[in-house]
Amino acid sequence: xxIEYREIRSxxxxxxxxxxALMHGESSYSHLKFSKPRLLEIFNLYMSDPNRAVFIAxxxxxxxxxxxxxxxxxxxxxxxxxxxxxxxxxKERRGSRVGLRLLSCFETWAKDRGxxxxxxxxxxxxxxVAFDSLMQKRGYSRVGANYxxxx
Length: 151
Prior knowledge:
Layout: E1 4-7, H1 13-26, H2 36-48, E2 52-59, E3 62-73, E4 80-89, H3 98-112, E5 115-119, H4 128-137
């Protein structure tokens, strides 16, 4: 069966919960409590705001990955930047084209809306060496780093 790549629809909430829980469990955020009601709140926000988007990869009703991001003006400029908030592919599909196709969906969405650039944060700490290599091959340059202080 073919993999479908598209923006989310209301019936995708259960799939997003599955992906969200998997991503949370693997990430540097796993010490924080996962909340389905909060995910639903964000899901609804992203579905109703034209400057926000979530793309999903699905095959035969099974969610394989997602990419979520938003478009905004810089705080110092009227130009637009596209930022991600989540990019995740299930373990069984890593190394396939699923992640890159989801990224392409977002890049096209951002470009079509006039974004000057796409900026991707990396805070989950899942396979950092492979991630860095992938992004460099894709034409991205590394800018800065993420730091965390737990309370």
